UniProtKB/TrEMBL annotation:
<keyword id="KW-0067">ATP-binding</keyword>
<dbReference type="GO" id="GO:0005524">
    <property type="term" value="F:ATP binding"/>
</dbReference>
<dbReference type="GO" id="GO:0004827">
    <property type="term" value="F:proline-tRNA ligase activity"/>
</dbReference>
<dbReference type="InterPro" id="IPR036621">
    <property type="entry name" value="Anticodon-bd_dom_sf"/>
</dbReference>
<keyword id="KW-0648">Protein biosynthesis</keyword>
<keyword id="KW-0436">Ligase</keyword>
<feature type="domain" description="Aminoacyl-transfer RNA synthetases class-II family profile">
    <location>
        <begin position="38"/>
        <end position="317"/>
    </location>
</feature>
<dbReference type="InterPro" id="IPR050062">
    <property type="entry name" value="Pro-tRNA_synthetase"/>
</dbReference>
<keyword id="KW-0547">Nucleotide-binding</keyword>
<dbReference type="Pfam" id="PF03129">
    <property type="entry name" value="HGTP_anticodon"/>
</dbReference>
<dbReference type="InterPro" id="IPR004154">
    <property type="entry name" value="Anticodon-bd"/>
</dbReference>
<dbReference type="InterPro" id="IPR002316">
    <property type="entry name" value="Pro-tRNA-ligase_IIa"/>
</dbReference>
<protein>
    <recommendedName>
        <fullName>Proline--tRNA ligase</fullName>
        <ecNumber>6.1.1.15</ecNumber>
    </recommendedName>
</protein>
<keyword id="KW-0030">Aminoacyl-tRNA synthetase</keyword>
<dbReference type="GO" id="GO:0006433">
    <property type="term" value="P:prolyl-tRNA aminoacylation"/>
</dbReference>
<dbReference type="InterPro" id="IPR006195">
    <property type="entry name" value="aa-tRNA-synth_II"/>
</dbReference>
<dbReference type="InterPro" id="IPR002314">
    <property type="entry name" value="aa-tRNA-synt_IIb"/>
</dbReference>
Amino acid sequence: MRYSQLFGKTNKNAPHDADCANARWLVQGGFVDQLAAGVYTFLPLGLRVLDKVKRIIREEMDALGAQELLMPALQPAEPWQVTGRWDDPGEEVMFQFEGRGGKKFGLGWTHEEIVTPLVQRHVKSYRDLPLSVYQIQDKFRNEPRAKSGLLRGREFSMKDLYSFHLTLADLEAFYQKAAQAYLRVFKRCGLNALMVEASGGAFSKYSHEFQVPTEAGEDTVFSCVKCNWAQNKEICTLKNGDACPPGCGGQVREMKAIEVGNIFQLKNRFSDSFKFDVAGDDGKPARVLMGCYGIGPSRVMGTAVEVHHDDKGILWPREIAPYLVHVVSLPAKDKTEQERVMNAAEGIVSDLQDAGIDVLWDDRVSVSAGEKFADADLIGCPLRLIVSQKTLADGAVEWKERHEGGSRLVKSGDVLEEAGTFAKEPYETTVR
């Protein structure tokens, strides 16, 4: 992609109402445009990031054996009235309104009321179980105070997975597999997520949240410095410095965090409401048990910015960066040298693209080197390749990794091989 042709450019001024890093840098970097509080348009750069997060999620959900579907966001009131959630929490959470003929509708903020009767219509026997289905869809939530950029919106992207089981043992086994898949998703997105015990509500003793430690977080969690134990402050009776409850010998540390996913063993909460039974292997009716598992792709994107940024812009993790490589061709002293620089840059871009590497090329010729570097910092692609009259005199390009200081020259003939190696290297997640 040539930057000169890209729809949505960088902005040197921070939004006046930006209350966190992602709200600032995503707008300034040309990733999103705010339509209203908690409502964003994803511009081409931002949509590329969001789609890459979704691709990672799809790969991990498919590996679990889950099947993707897409349910309506516009939902009639009736299934919500069956479970009692049309009135409780009702309009506090759900956008509700009347259509023609006075028929009541709402915009989905979750999909248990839709997926349960859907699966019920198709699953009749124990032979049809276990089953897991998922979707990635925009959700709507009547937030009293939308804030924090993509972290708390009124319209947001959500992946929800639902599993259906005949036995509790089968539900628990799948629940653990799903938890591990979630941890893989977040690691691939450049996030060190903790699996945190939280209130199970009416469903079970505990649910589990996936929390990313950062001072930008709204949640408070307590985590052992030595083992994997962690609990949300809402249910934790410990204080900072207490001994780890499992007895590993470590101490509990209090920290702020952002929730990027959660999983619940719903058990029979919704199958009871819809009287969802199947014929068991003994021929008798058996009540279906359920689990639900949510990840917010847009929230993951916003969290990645909160964790990976500096005072110049974003530092995208490799698997979700809009482009892996940002080629920057610098202005030259005369027309002949400028053509030489542009031809060399175009050749590098073509070679990288032919090798399957995503490339953004800043091909502008009337913009200073300083402005180009500032824009590259804002956008935050992992690898910057600078082509200039000076580097070409050395038969090289300047190689600069966004998350590291300094730069080095790489011979032009070695760029493709080194970039290919860079693309395959594992990204070490670090909290900044």
